[in-house]
Amino acid sequence: MRKFNRTRGPRISFFKSLANNLIMKERIETTITRAKEIRPIVERMVSIAKKQQLASLRSLLEKLPAQSAKKMYFDIGPRYLTRNGGYLRIIKGGKARKRDAAYVATIEFVK
Description:
Elements: H1 8-25, E1 27-31, H2 32-50, H3 54-63, H4 66-79, E2 88-96, E3 103-109
């Protein structure tokens, strides 16, 4: 696990906000390392949402803000009922950001 120069609490909050943005927009542009770190976290949440049980909704509410947890449970989870993993795709961009030369990637849900 990459630490992103953060201690445990701020790092968990950072991942939670990245996951929230990805779920609400269904596609975000971020650095490659951030996309690689957030992918397994969100894919686990999709697997939880696919179960369609009250316990899975409550589990998502613990991990995410209420609005994105409900979107994950009611919209995104049922979309992937027949799929056995691989819910997200990372598309590497060929350009680097100007200010810090970090390579950018787009992470999105597979249709």
